[in-house]
Amino acid sequence: MENFHYYTPTRVVFGKETELQTGQLVKECGCKKVLVHYGSGSVKKSGLLDRICAALEEAEVDFVTLGGVVPNPRLSLVYEGIRLCREESVDFILAVGGGSVIDSAKAIGYGMANEGDVWDFYAKKRAPQGCLPLGVVLTIAAAGSEMSDSSVITKEEGWVKRGCNSNYVRPRFAVMNPELTMTLPAYQTESGCVDIMMHTMERYLNQADNMELTDGISECLIRTVMKNAKILLENPKDYEARAEVMWAGSLSHNGLTGCGTDGGDWASHQLEHELGGMYDVAHGAGLSAVWGSWARYVMDARPERFARFAVQVMGVEDTRNAMETAEKGVQAMEEFYRSIEMPTSLEELGVHPTEEEVRELARKCSFDGGRTIGCVKKLDQEDIFRIYMNAR
């Protein structure tokens, strides 16, 4: 077992109609003016934005609004948000949406609390020293950004997708009403389920001496999401299944499933970030498209770990040959992805990169050959290229 720090300051308000408490929750944070940040017209059409604004007015909290966040949130809107917040003297940000909206809100918060270009933090040129406080009303169970320390932004110039992690951006509160996710398209729901699973699998498939309790929590979380992902494919209005998945999304990325490990591998996420940046694909779908190719490329470095995953999570019979059992586990996971209509290759994802484009993906992912990714097996630019090619 590795030493670890576990920090989760986010207050969770979970259940039906909890969004009606938003005004009071914001007021308790002691702010004077709020930016209500959201995505497309769905929060308007559903009436959610009106309910949030009414709750703020009832609590006598002043606010301004900024919509327009898209999947793989854009740096240009972050800049617009920072400008608006400065003009309006905003001191709190309320994200109403899913991971993309929350990530955009976090980036705006960074820009408000630090001098210079906010992109510097995502380009790893310097580290943030603070963030404007923020809260969340969650509408999509997927990214776990409502309790995490992470934010991912896409820069349109060059279509580069990068992340920044710090405890400064952990939200003060997260309002979670599973009913708000019931209108999501099936593809978005199932893509979210993959993202939740992968946040746990990235931490689980590692090179550490793992903690048995954390392993058990992780295994149960993945199995629970798999079970409920299938239920939601058939019955998207199932409240209990929505609730299980929503809570799993938060627990998968608030640090709990990494306690006692080395922090995890995260290569699959890095591989997907470049796909998201270049082709604007759904994050979870991009993850499922590359995961099998990554797993087969690295599992010989930790076959016993992949074999445990196969047995404990996928229900594969232990063949007493770690590599054989591990391969059966990868096959079983790919079969599961297909059962919930998620892709297991770039072709199934709808992306058809040329070899030249694959080399560009590998160049970006390796930061022009300046870094390796992953910990199960450290992957350089050539390794990354081969995994992308195998994923085609």
TrEMBL record:
Pfam families (UniProt xref): ADH_Fe_C, Fe-ADH
Domain Fe-containing alcohol dehydrogenase-like C-terminal span(s) in chain numbering: 192-390
Domain Alcohol dehydrogenase iron-type/glycerol dehydrogenase GldA: 9-178
Keywords assigned by UniProt, alphabetized: Oxidoreductase
InterPro entries per record: ADH_Fe/GldA, ADH_Fe_C, ADH_Fe_CS, BDH-like
Domain of life: Bacteria
GO MF annotation terms: alcohol dehydrogenase (NADP+) activity; butanol dehydrogenase (NAD+) activity; metal ion binding; methylglyoxal reductase (NADPH) (acetol producing) activity
Record carries keyword Ion transport: no
GO CC terms: cytosol
Keyword check for Cytoplasm: no
Protein name as annotated: Iron-containing alcohol dehydrogenase
The organism of origin for this protein: Schaedlerella arabinosiphila
Source species taxonomy: Bacteria, Bacillati, Bacillota, Clostridia, Lachnospirales
